[in-house]
Amino acid sequence: MTEPRQRWQSRPCPAVQTWVPILRWLPRYSLAWLQLDLVAGLTVGLTVVPQALAYAEVAGLPVQYGLYSSFMGCFVYCFLGTAKDVTLGPTAIMSLLVSSYAFHEPVYAILLTFLSGCIQLAMGLLHLGFLLDFISSPVIKGFTSAASITISFNQVKNILGLQGIPRQFFLQVYETLRRIGETRAGDAILGLTCLAALAGLRAMKSHLPRAASADPLAARISYLIVWTSATARNALVVLFAGLVAYSFQVMGSQPLTLTGSIPQGLPAFQLPRFSMDTPNGTIPFRSMVEDMGIGLAVVPLMGLLETIAIAKAFASQNDYRIDPNQELLAMGFANILGSFVSSYPITGSFGRTAVNAQSGVCTPAGGLVTGALVLLSLAYLTSLFYYIPKAALAAVIISAVVPMFDAGIFRTLWRVKRLDLVPLCVTFLVCFWEVQYGIVAGVLVSGILLLYSIARPPIKVSEGAVLLVQPGSSLHFPAIEWLRDTVCSHALAGASPPRSIILDCRHISSIDYTVVAGLAELLQELRKHGLSLAFCCLQDPVLQVLLSADLEGFQHFPSWEETERCGAVEPRGSEADPFASTSESSQLPARLIQ
Fold first, then answer.
1. Is the pLDDT of residue 582 over 50?
2. Which domains are seen in the chain, by residue range?
3. pLDDT tens digit string along 360-386?
4. In this predicted structure, which of 36-40, 189-193, 415-419, 566-570 has the lowest mean pLDDT?
5. pLDDT tens digits for 219-253?
6. In 26-136, where does DSSP find H-type helix?
7. Residues ≥6 apart with Cβ < 8 Å to 150
8. Integer angstrom CA distances of residue 484 from 489, 503, 521, 525
9. DSSP labels for 255-281?
């Protein structure tokens, strides 16, 4: 396995290979890679088919749309993706977002796919992937943890066989508890059995010792059978549940709620519809866009975030590199072309990517096998999907999303940095009301905390005959008033003000015009009181800005030692940092202004 991974490493390549990554590895493709890619593609295909049917239920769409969304991304990513392990398709998170913004209407969902793809493609062409950095880890953790709870509880109604339960979370909880007496015994028994089987197979796989090449043939075959069964557990459980439902159907009774008829055949390849006909008239394109609102930002951003996070994680694990902007292009093309085959928005799937990696995939060509398996299912197997119980699909969803809940993150942030609990908890709680509001609220809170840290940088002040001021970070326009107030409050307070003030700028790497104007006003104010202000340790970019501004009375020194030699301050030895804790400098009262 090591050799294919090493050979996968991307090398310097011409521009055309940068835009079409398949050209990097296809000329070196080997029979050994083909065997491993076939096994991985088939294994992922056995996972994606039952999950696709289940996730369509989460999205509030007919189940066939889950399959429509599961093959185009595999084909596109094979040509344009830079991570050998990533698989694109419907996911729990994206399905939940589609449920919120597509209003359970396929026309809205398909148009959302097209527009999201256009936005992602534009971001890739403009190299705007850095925008994802503004969504902090606590916001992501809060969102995914809340999503795991809402998605899981949304499937409880199918486990219990209840009908007519509202989709809003709090109403859903109330109605489910109120009508729990209406539970269908057949659905409940089958659903709980499937959950137990999925949990058992997952645990068995995690504790399965790897077979060594020196083990007997029987031991290696047993390992392969158990590993395959545990990896394809979703397909096995759905197959078992379908056989149970079919058996009841043959006997003339049906205690289970079934998926029902699914249109057979491949979706038509056509442009998405830019208007929608309703009994009350036609909804034009502009109104549809207004209805989707903030979803046109949330869906593409969350899709990109999920894909790039997964790609980076597995690239690091398997020792290769990805190109984030190329990943944006791959996602954009996948969604645009997906909308032509009635797909709803897709993204990278962590669970299926893990299966892909564990199966030993060598290149993105494994996705071709997965996509072909989905197409075969659509063409020939949809009549069999009629007998799949909804309780079994609900069990598949719950089993997939429960691990997304990270209870340990609350304890970790409490120990590491408690302030980060604020955006985490805001996102987590608001997501139970509306997912989109939770994400927006979390990003806003994170932004406020970030802006506060920029507006109130730490400033170290040492008082004495000379006032030494050292900002702890770069200065931007929200911070200049804070710096001026700090300097003036210390320089002008007390009966014996200092003769001069030294501003140590060694930690300042950039300033803006507002800061320059504020420093000019500070120089003028101090001069009125007979005080001088000198700058030391200026970095070149900052020095060039200040020299260009031609500040009146501006004086600067390249180092603290030079400041002493020129007589700007009293000599105190050759300290590298004027605020270092030495025997002499410790006699000065130092304070850290937060």
1. no
2. 2-403 (no CATH), 407-454 (no CATH), 457-593 (3.30.750.24)
3. 789 999 999 999 999 999 999 888 888
4. 566-570
5. 888 888 888 888 778 888 888 999 999 999 999 88
6. 31-59, 64-68, 72-80, 92-101, 106-125
7. 96, 169, 431, 432, 435
8. 8, 11, 9, 10
9. -S-B------SPPP--PPPSSEEETTE
